[in-house]
Amino acid sequence: MIDLTKPCREVSLAAVMTVGALVLASNAPALAGSQQSDDPLARRIDVVWRDVPLSQAAHRLAQVVEVTAFIDRRLDPHARVTLRANGVSARDAFLQLAQQVEAVIVDRAELVYLGPSEGAATLVAAPPLGSAPRATQRLLKRKKKIVWNRLAMPREIIEQALAEERITIENANLVPHDLWDAGTLPTAPVADQLSVLLTGFGLTWHADPQRTGVVVLELSNATAQPIAPRLTPRETPPAGVPSAVAVEQQRYTLRVQEQPLEAVLGQIAERSGMELRITPGAAPIAAQRTSFSVREASLDELLEAAAASAGLVVRRIESIIEVTTVR
Fold first, then answer.
1. Which of 46, 67, 160, 327 could form a disulfide with 21 if both were Cys (CB 3.0 to 4.6 A apart)?
2. Is the pTM of this model over 0.90?
3. From CA 216, how far away is CA 321, in angstroms rounded?
4. Cβ atoms 304, 298 nearer than 8 A
């Protein structure tokens, strides 16, 4: 039984930033009454949380199953949480923690993110890389571990991590001044790491189509930014085809846990340069939280899996994604 009323010896307060848990290992010793699993978050645990800070509960839970908890900076790390659970999975424990602070989690590959739904939606699909130079794609897909010291500034963390991979960055000044405690992001693709580091500030990014670099932008302006190569006056995109994204070339591998379907589909639509339409009959269902996973899926396969998880139907008509209850 884990009693979180006892002090936690090592709490990496990445809680000043964004909540994510990145898997470090899958062979942690079994707890009493728990089961071994290749998925650390599937391990069953006994926990007791009595009016303790969110950051302490999340990081202690992460230590038990050998992952790293990363809390969105928009959540209050000092918010008090209380939970008593016997024989539940670590994933369910994280979900119950998140619910107490009106947050959600994203569990994709080696990432578990705890934060507001808008932040979670940002991490559902990685920014498209299809139009970026091959060199940029290779570098952004390269896996690395990111470590920073106490009082590090997030802008410097991002710039240094990209510089080490010879990736340039534009609009880094959009990342506001902040000071973080010491922290670590375990090994994962640079593209995923960058998204995690930016989402807590309401920021995202896209690959520069002409250079080996990335461009930071505000999430609200994401769909207005050019992602496809810039066109000369003699070049125009085919009529009716979104110039922002090579939609058919994208592949998605992700696992969504307890997120509002509408937020997930909305972010996918933005990333694809498309318009999301939800019929009145489907709206109440789309507002509810759902869970699903896909691996190397096309956009149509991703949309179908997302809608099916909530018992809905999706149709893609040119640049419109329509969600309905009628087949």
1. 67
2. no
3. 26
4. no
